[in-house]
Specification:
Helix content is 26%, strand content 24%. With 228 residues, it is α/β, with parallel strands linked by helices. The strands form 2 sheets. The chain has a 7-stranded mixed β-sheet. The chain has a 4-stranded antiparallel β-sheet with strand order 6-7-8-9, with no helix packed on it.
Length: 228
């Protein structure tokens, strides 16, 4: 899923990060075949190798062109998973794992909407299910601490980054939308939340359905485990 046009330039997974994530998922979801729902699946970066390993994968995205790359045995569902009315159930039964990868979770900038999503996923999840995210807390906040995430306009003037005045939320404008005289986030801007691990702990606790987030042993993933 693209966060905004050209967003991969801001939130890329390097080849090494992608490889580490793929290895971690294969280990975490082994050995038996599992029912997996990939939210914001895009063109199947994650779903294709998992389906190849024998898992039954449902890929959900609102980008029809991207989903067209997800070939059988992957099943697809064209919708926006952040829509409160979206059908997020696996067609074969309770899901063993929900995946929100590729930094897609940052789109959930409103904590209340994120909380409601976790509660909805729990309704369709097996008792021992997992919710798996990128470990963006480590990578993005490390870059913030190093001074990378500064408010401003890129040297080529094609991209503008704006911070919310009172929340760890940013907006990115590109090309014709860049306005060096306007540094407030507009209603039409796409907001992205730089979630911290502490916020995710609070989110899990408030859901009443998911355990506290665990950082995977190789630092590639964050895992919530469904309360039995």
């Amino acid at each position: 899923m693209n966060i905004v046009q050209g967003a991969q330039a801001w939130f890329p997974l390097t080849p090494d990060e992608d490889e580490a994530q793929q290895r971690a998922l294969q280990r975490l979801l082994a050995p038996s075949p599992k029912r997996i729902v990939d939210l914001g699946a895009g063109s199947g970066r994650i779903g294709t190798p998992l389906a190849g390993a024998g898992h039954t994968v449902l890929a959900i995205d609102h980008d029809e062109a991207a989903l067209a790359h997800c070939k059988p045995p992957i099943r697809t569902r064209l919708l926006d998973f952040t829509d409160p009315g979206a059908d997020l159930a696996h067609p074969d039964g309770p899901a063993h794992a929900y995946l929100i990868l590729g930094n897609t979770f940052l789109l959930l900038h409103n904590p209340i909407e994120a909380l409601r999503l976790l509660q909805r996923l729990a309704e369709h999840a097996a008792p021992d299910a997992m919710l798996i995210l990128d470990n963006f807390c480590a990578s993005l906040w490390r870059e913030v601490a190093d001074g990378f995430w500064q408010e401003g306009v890129s040297e080529d003037t094609r991209m503008q980054m704006i911070w919310d005045a009172a929340d760890p939320v940013i907006a990115i404008r590109e090309d014709d939308a860049v306005n060096e005289d306007d540094w407030s986030i507009r209603p039409t801007d796409t907001r992205l939340r730089l979630w911290s691990l502490g916020e995710l702990r609070l989110l899990a606790h408030a859901s009443g359905q998911w355990g506290a987030p665990e950082v995977h042993e190789d630092d590639a993933l964050i895992i919530f485990r469904r309360h039995a």
